[in-house]
Every structure is written in C-alpha cells, then in structure tokens.
Specification:
Blueprint lengths: L1 E7 L2 E7 L30 E2 L2 E5 L4 E6 L6 E2 L4 E7 L2 E6 L4 E5 L6 E2 L4 E5 L1
Antiparallel strand pairs: 1-2, 3-4, 4-11, 5-7, 5-10, 6-9, 7-8, 9-11
C-alpha cells in the first residue's frame, strides 16, 4: 500500500492506494518528425491605377455601408466601407491617404478582387 495526501476543494484527505503487481505500461516509441514549414505569406502589392490606388475586395460579399462620402478626403487605415461576408461585417480600410472615388454602391454584391474604390 502507498499513502498519498490529496487536496480537493480546499479539503485535505489521506488516501491509501494498493499497488498492482503488473509493471506500468511503457509509452510506445514516438519518432520525432519535424513538421514541414509553411510557405511564407507574401502580401500582394497594392495595385496602382493611373493617378490612384485601387481598393479591391479581399473576399466576396455584400457592400452594406459606405463609411465616407464619395470625393471625401481619407487617411491611411481609415475605414471606408463595410463588406458583409459569411454574416460578418468587415471594415475595408484605405491603403493610403487621398480622395476617394467609389466604384460600387451600397447593396452591391462583389466578388474577390472586385474594384471597390480608387484613392487619388
């Protein structure tokens, strides 16, 4: 018999455990195999348009809100529209400072890569 002190919910108990005659099972050999490295993600360059930067849809979805007026001055990383995809609303942000010119309207369904706006 082996004796152990066990604490459960703040209460201390002394327990005796009988040893079984069979030896404990040994773990099976597990070879160490290195996981393959995932390729590094490369950010796509921002497409340039003559006189402006394109803002494209990163996923298919529904344009539910235009956050700023067409022709308004925007700052880099400012939310410019809301794209609903898989019942989640995603803010699409300006990649640079400039004046926005929307290429879509509220309620439009867009595919991945669709032109949403141009910032000049």
């Amino acid at each position: 018999m082996r004796t152990f002190n066990v604490k459960v919910n703040g209460q201390s108990y002394t327990v005796e455990v009988e040893e079984v005659g069979a030896p404990a099972a040994q773990p099976a050999f597990q070879p160490q195999v290195a996981a393959p490295q995932a390729p590094k993600a490369v950010e796509a360059p921002k497409p340039q348009v003559a006189g402006g930067t394109q803002v494209v849809a990163p996923m298919p979805g529904l344009v539910v809100n235009l956050k700023v007026a067409d022709g308004a001055q925007v700052k880099k990383d400012q939310a410019i529209l809301v794209l609903e995809a898989m019942k989640m609303e995603n803010d699409i942000v300006a990649p640079c400072d400039g004046v926005i010119s929307y290429q879509v309207s509220k309620g439009a369904n867009v595919d991945t890569g669709a032109l949403l706006a141009v910032i000049k």
